[in-house]
Here is the input.
Amino acid sequence: MQRTAANHSRPALTAKLAENVPRYTSYPTAPHFHSAVDATTVRGWINAIAAGDEISLYLHIPYCDRLCWFCACHTKQTRHYAPVATFLRSLHREIGTIAGLVSGKGRVRAVHFGGGSPTMLKPADILALGKALRDQFDFLDNASLSVEIDPNDMDEGRLDAFAAIGMTRASLGVQDFDPKVQKAINREQSFELTRDVIEGIRQRGIDSVNLDLLYGLPHQTLESVASTVTQALTLHPDRIALFGYAHVPWFKKHQTMIDEAWLPDSEARLAQSQLASRMIVDAGYEALGLDHFAKPADSLAVSARAGTIRRNFQGYTEDGCDTLIGLGPSAISRYRQGYAQNIVATGEYEKAVNAGHLATARGIEFSVDDLARGWIIERLMCHFSFSAVELVERFGEVGRKLLLKASSVAVDDGGRMLALDGEHFVVPRDNWPLVRTVAARFDKYLGNGTGKHSVAV
Here is the structure.
């Protein structure tokens, strides 16, 4: 799906740029999880996994050796390895507990190491985690293993260790190469360091590299964004994720270290996003969904062309597994029946799993209405459209009711945000940057509760 920047000076668009809406890596979104979904609930959901089902695993490493001020992840800074070692012992206990419940049923299709900084782990601990996973879970022969990498952590030993446990994709955080921007977000990382780590990854036979870039950061300008994109393209990544910085200081207090006067406004954010997108597409990458790009031969681009691309907590993915089990504090799992999130506080998580319990703190069980709205939102986020016929075929009467909702959304805004084209409701191309705002029109929970979100673009 190719796209280029359009003229977005129309008042209908600019008036919506600053709306605060979820990122929709899930539906219902995490602020609406509740404690009625507990360890007993999740144990039942795991027991319902059928023999031969394919599952994915996500390991959340909740530590960093420095705290980047832009980050909104559940993590904490430590200059000592002792807390990390203590956490890893608990993570191994959780792996054993979950594997025991899954045994004889789910087969692992994909593993994702995230955080925090998985790359701050010592090589021996990386190897031990890889061995524990493969010893206790049944892996498919072609299972993928992706790792979020902070280039500042990497050395030969860590590169060797991740290669040894079967890493198939590396995702490197770049954000921006401009030293002034890096200083403002406490993330100093040279182009040369990033280049050398990528070379080390590829020398070890790992043939898929993703770069994460951000727009909307303090002190960013069109010129600095263009410079970063130009440098990133010389590294020939297989994928690029272009995220908008989410300024949520009410949620992550360390973001108060960023002076809001340094931040570009909504229209400047949009211009930065459009410029970067155009440069990446002009370099031969295919635009996927809202903010991802891939070389045409990459599996994510192939999945997008086939109409099978998905969206989960790691962003856009070709992973089609219905079950994704999160391990580690704050990790979120998705089962066929609903979402479940682990205890966020690391100490409380460790107490629970060390006692042999599941670490579930809260979640939400899907209703048919949730599934139908979630399907619409995911289709919009992935394809900017959804089929009215397929909606009814999948969800029956609930689907028919949501068609009335879609029609009212289209009529209320005169077709500018959502229009009916044959049997498909589509987001007009000029308004693709606001697809999160369109998706929010189908979110029945959004007006309830105390959850706050980042701006739409």
Observations:
- Residues 1-9 have pLDDT under 50 and may be disordered.
- The radius of gyration is 21 Å.
